[in-house]
Amino acid sequence: MAGQQFQYDDSGNTFFYFLTSFVGLIVIPATYYLWPRDQNAEQLRLKSLRRVHGRCLWYRLRLMKSQQSVVPTLKKAALLLGWALFIFLAYKVSTLDREYQEYNPWEVLNLDQSASVAEIKKQFRVLSLKFHPDKGGDEAMFMRITKAYKALTDEDARQIWENYGNPDGPGATRFGIALPGWIVDQKNSMLVLLVYGLAFMVILPVVVGTWWYRSIRYSGDQILINTTQLFMHFMYKTPNMNMKRLGMVLTAAFEFDPRSNKEAIIRPTDNVEVPQLIRELGSIINVKKKEPPFCYPYSLKARVLLLAQLARMDVSEDLEEDQRFVVRKCPALLQEMINVGCQLTMMANSRGGFHAPRLVSIENCMKLSQMSVQGLQEAKSPLLQLPHFEEEHLRYCISKKYKVRTLQDLVSLKDSDRRNMLRFLGEEKYDEVMGVLSSLPHITMETKLQVLDDEDSSNITAGSIVTVTVTLTRKKMCEVFEKEQVAPALPEDAAAAAAEESQADAGKNKVKGWQNKSKVTKKAAKAKKKKLTKKKPLPQQQAKGDKPKQANGNVAGNDVAVKEEDEEASDKGSESDEGEGNKDTPSEREEESDKQSDAEMDQMGGDDEQEWKALQQSIQRRERALLETKSKVTHPVYSLYFPEEKQEWWWLYITDRRDQTLVSMPYHVCTLRDTEEVELKFPAPSKTGNYQYSVVLRSDSYMGLDQIKPLKLEVHEAKAMLDNHPQWDIPDTEEEEEPDDSDGIEESEEEEEDND
Predict the structure, then answer these.
(1) Cα(159)–Cα(152) distance, rounded to whole angstroms?
(2) How far is residue 262's CA from residue 255's CA, in Å, rounded to a whole number?
(3) What are phi and psi of 175, to 5 degrees?
């Protein structure tokens, strides 16, 4: 077995290959992920939002950050430096000579492989005279020529060359290491060991440990695990939580504690500024609460800053920075609190033994999210979300003449009345208010109630899983303006004609609905009989007026239709039976009715097949929706006092307002740009009867845009399971015969023994 030799790259040529690959593996992904996005695109996006969101705090902060930030420039400079190093190394590698070449005696002698032995000897003689050392030639080249000549003329040397690729036979295997030789030099051994120890024994363990420590402290939504446990404790302890206590629990989160979060700061000036804010807030903050952690300094400071935000109070510059940090964390913390409340509710429904959080507690979390984003207290008017609206301006809106208390009331006003009511605003401010109001969301809800995985999806039985499919359509308020302004602009004649057409359409729809109405409670036999007896009148007969009609427009009585069927059947019978006249026999009528019933059954089978195809398509659509990952970027929220750009998100759930309980868990709709379809599932009540539920849609950012839609649920008795399976039943006679046969066999065996 040949030996092995390891050697380092003394010249450093192969080390450049390793270094080029290493730098490329770092520079290429870093450029993709860290290269700053086009600043011009961000400037254009902010410019397009300026008309509506120009007065928002988050917009001004984002604009200032994009103009003053030097981080993108530093990132670009570092990445360009890395690319310059990579290009230099690639050029260095491309200029290196390839040292290893496969040994080929034909190339050494400069001959073709088809050359004869005479030509080989002749060429060797010429080259040996040229490169012989005694005649001043190159000794190394002469040795190569001699080795090549032997490999081509000597049979043993030729066989060795063909087997091992070298006329000298097998040699030692060499492994080159793409590192320079000075790394293993004894003079540099201490420095190399120091670098290796620092990299693999200090830096790498610290990085991995820091990542692991952070990962185990945070949940999937980047909320501290301790905060989640704190919320669960107080939600369990206080099922019916009012808004005041909810604010105390929220601000007790460990995200605001400097010991758990380095972003939270306790300043020396807090001992002066925080007590001053407490005096200004008055009785709305409970300072005497001694229950931990509500009495801790970080919790008290966060609560004061949050209440000051809701009251729209001015604070100092240092406290303003801390206030932005607190307010920015509130929506995510409230979402975590809602999740905790839903988990406790599911545990209470499945296990029992403790009281689940009340519906008011979960809805207060949603309301507090709206309040923190808009910087408004719960009792304040939602009109204060608009720019240039102050408390003293509301008296013009809530006067007896206009009675505008909500955003919807402001939208429904005529333009002349709206301008007259908002006369305290100038023309420029009025246009800005209308621009913001036009951009606010207008959501329409459509609900569909069904029971999937059941033969009759519209029949809700006790204990079945009910699926409520809610289709949400998001539009702007300006579209509502357009519809309301176009409607009264019709002339009188056109309006009268439109009214007549609408009445006519309504009449047609009524007749159509009455004709298509089917009674579910009737038996199938009666329904088939009714279909057989009904027959549509021919247009010619209606024109002639041969048939009398009732007031409702239908043919009087069913006898006429039956008589016509008998006449048609007798005509068919006369054509088929030549010698029997025009008489119709009962058997022929039965055959005709059987044909009609078969056609109806085929039609019913086709309808079932269409329903099955529609169900399959809906299932495939849901599977595709599960596989797709949609972006959570919807529409920026208009907020005058929120310090960060926020997207429009919604909560959708079903409640029982009578019992104040959750029927379905709240679904956080984060991808509603234009249209979104959401499925809410819940078990039907175990008792039959009629139930009144409510489908609730709540915004997590706007006040006054929540919607509640009634949902009626009619629960029927569940179908009884068929316990008798004829194919499994064993006749009683067989069971009785078996013991008789066995007795006979035993008796016969006893007789044989006696005979023996």
Answers:
(1) 9
(2) 9
(3) -115, 120
Residue 152: other Cβ atoms inside 10 A: 23
Strands 707-716 and 460-461: parallel
DSSP secondary structure letters along 237-304: H-SS--HHHHHHHHHTSGGG-TTT-TT----TTHHHHHHHHHHHHGGGS-TT--STTTTSHHHHHHHH
Distance from C-alpha of 661 to C-alpha of 658, rounded to nearest angstrom: 8
| Distances from the Cα of 526 to the Cα of 203, 520, 598, angstroms | 85, 11, 16
Place of tokens 């040795």: 143
User: What is the distance in angstroms between the CA of the first residue and the CA of the last residue of the chain?
Assistant: 89
| Residue 622 CB contacts under 8 Å (≥ 6 apart), including other chains | 679
Give the whole-angstrom CA distance, residue 15 versus residue 9.
7
| Residues facing residue 708 across a β-bridge | 696
Cα gap 169→159, rounded to integer Å: 10
CA pair distance 148, 167, nearest whole angstrom: 8
d(CA 31, CA 36): 9
**Where does the pLDDT of residue 616 fall: very low under 50, low under 70, confident under 90, or very high at 90 and above?**
low
Give the amino acid at 277. L
Single out the residue of 231, 217, 317 nearest to residue 261, CA to CA: 217
Buried b or exposed e, range 486-506, using 16+ CB within 10 angstroms = eeeeeeeeeeeeeeeeeeeee
User: What would the two tokens of residue 621 be?
Assistant: 């659509």
Residue position matching structure tokens 């080159």:
176
pLDDT tens digits, one per residue of 113-152:
788 888 888 888 888 888 888 777 788 888 888 888 877 8
d(CA 280, CA 676) in angstroms, rounded, equals: 45
Residue 30's closest CA among 78, 69, 89? 78
Distance of CA 734 to the CA centre of its chain: 62
Residue 678 CA to residue 468 CA, distance in Å, equals: 8
The pLDDT value given to residue 350: 81
What is the full DSSP assignment across 673-723? SSEEEEEEEEEPPSS-EEEEEEEEEEESS-SS--EEEEEEEEEEPPPPP--
In the block, residue with structure tokens 């758990």 = 260
SS3 helix, strand, coil % of the chain, rounded to 5?
A: 60, 10, 30
Burial letters 196-222, b for 16+ CB under 10 A, else e: eeeeeeeeeeeeeeeeeeeeeeeeeee
